[in-house]
């Protein structure tokens, strides 16, 4: 990920060697990452990985113990005021005022950001509309559902039209429909030119929204790259063959021989065959055809991000044990 150093012009967020300690805990232990302008970087990691710590440093809410970070060219340590003007933050812990209505919350933030009364009102109404909160605009936020509150929080982070948005687990605890709405809004923001740093524990979310991924665990980057690259790293594809007659699954597996490592999925009515090359793919399909099996469909898929995540975090654990043993 560091090869892009030379092209810093199109890098919206640039982090090098970031360290943050809390007593004995190294919340961040030398993190490097880049977010390209106009893209979404997904930062994936389990509980306690350091995601929120990273977002807090990049928002100038806390100071790192070592390392550097710039956002839109502004340094987190030396230019915090300029930096705050170009970012938006949706926290893991929503920051709306309970007693105020949705509209009042947005208006207040607009005023805090130096918008005129008129502009603050206009922007609040525009965002309420966009996040489907117009009907609830005059209700106090404490009467909002979790999903409405999250949408209000997202709207609040966008009032100042930030160039760079941090979304810290924006859909944790939301139902699937609300989660989809939030995803749609994030896509809209990116289409409007925002750069997004998204932390998440959901592989599906990262897969849906992120152009690139950084996987962190215990304060360290353990893997990174484009979604497809990460998947490819973990292993080959799986070929799924669906015979017209599900009764022949075992016969198909037998016909390919044990070396093919084919596994019959009787519930799904498919035969799963691990594939490492295009040649092998062609061979397997040809072999089944030659044996006279009637095939209703074939499909190939890369490993899921869950599998990628398990594989890379397992790897980092091993490395750590080796370091301890050394
Ligand atoms: N203010 C603090 N004081 C002490 N320790 C902290 C503090 N903030 C974070 N930590 C510790 O730093 C580590 C990283 O925490 P962080 O909140 O960044 O993780 P996270 O990836 O956001 O986790 P989650 O998915 O649970 O939100 C954890 O071990 C956490 O206990
Ligand atoms: Mg967190």
UniProtKB/TrEMBL annotation:
Enzyme Commission number: 7.6.2.2
Start and end residues of each ABC transporter domain: 13-243
SUPFAM superfamilies: P-loop containing nucleoside triphosphate hydrolases
UniProt keyword Cell membrane present: yes
Enzyme class: translocase
Gene Ontology terms, MF aspect: ABC-type xenobiotic transporter activity; ATP binding; ATP hydrolysis activity
Keyword Lipid metabolism: no
Superkingdom as given in the UniProt entry: Bacteria
SMART domains in UniProt: AAA (SM00382)
PROSITE patterns in the cross-refs: ABC_TRANSPORTER_1, ABC_TRANSPORTER_2
Cell compartments where the protein resides: Cell membrane
Gene Ontology cellular component terms for the protein in this record: plasma membrane
Membrane topology: Peripheral membrane protein
InterPro entries per the UniProt record, alphabetical: AAA+_ATPase, ABC_transporter-like_ATP-bd, ABC_transporter-like_CS, ABC_transporter_ATP-binding, DrrA, DrrA1/2-like_C, P-loop_NTPase
Keyword annotations: Antibiotic resistance, ATP-binding, Cell membrane, Membrane, Nucleotide-binding, Translocase, Transport
BP-aspect Gene Ontology terms: daunorubicin transport; doxorubicin transport; response to antibiotic
NCBIfam families in the cross-refs: drrA
Family of this protein: Belongs to the ABC transporter superfamily. Drug exporter-1 (DrugE1) (TC 3.A.1.105) family.
Name used for this protein in its record: ABC-type xenobiotic transporter
The organism of origin for this protein: Actinacidiphila glaucinigra
């Amino acid at each position: 990920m560091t090869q892009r150093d030379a092209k810093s012009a199109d890098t919206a967020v640039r982090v090098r060697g970031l360290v943050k300690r809390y007593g004995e805990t190294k919340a961040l232990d030398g993190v490097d990452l880049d977010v390209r302008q106009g893209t979404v970087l997904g930062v994936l990691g389990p509980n306690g990985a350091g995601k929120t710590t990273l977002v807090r440093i990049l928002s100038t809410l806390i100071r790192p113990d070592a390392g550097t970070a710039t956002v839109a060219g502004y340094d987190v340590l030396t230019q915090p005021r300029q930096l705050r003007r170009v970012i938006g933050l949706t926290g893991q812990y929503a920051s709306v005022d309970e007693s105020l209505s949705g509209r009042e919350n947005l208006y207040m933030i607009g005023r805090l950001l130096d918008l005129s009364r008129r502009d603050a009102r206009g922007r609040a109404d525009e965002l309420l509309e966009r996040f489907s909160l117009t009907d609830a605009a005059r209700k106090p936020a404490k009467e909002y559902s979790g999903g409405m509150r999250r949408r209000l929080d997202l709207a609040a982070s966008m009032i100042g039209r930030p160039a760079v948005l941090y979304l810290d687990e924006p859909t944790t605890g939301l139902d699937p429909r609300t989660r989809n709405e939030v995803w749609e809004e994030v896509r809209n923001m990116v289409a409007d030119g925002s750069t997004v740093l998204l932390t998440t524990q959901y592989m599906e979310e990262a897969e849906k929204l992120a152009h690139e991924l950084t996987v962190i665990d215990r304060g360290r980057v353990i893997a990174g790259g484009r979604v497809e690259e990460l998947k490819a790293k973990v292993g080959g594809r799986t070929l799924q063959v669906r015979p017209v007659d599900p009764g022949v699954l075992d016969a198909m597996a037998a016909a390919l021989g044990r070396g093919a490592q084919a596994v019959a999925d009787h519930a799904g009515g498919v035969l799963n065959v691990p594939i490492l090359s295009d040649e092998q793919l062609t061979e397997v399909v040809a072999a089944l055809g030659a044996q006279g099996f009637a095939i209703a469909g074939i499909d190939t898929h890369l490993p899921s991000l869950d599998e990628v995540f398990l594989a890379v975090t397992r790897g980092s654990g091993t490395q750590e044990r080796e370091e301890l043993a050394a």
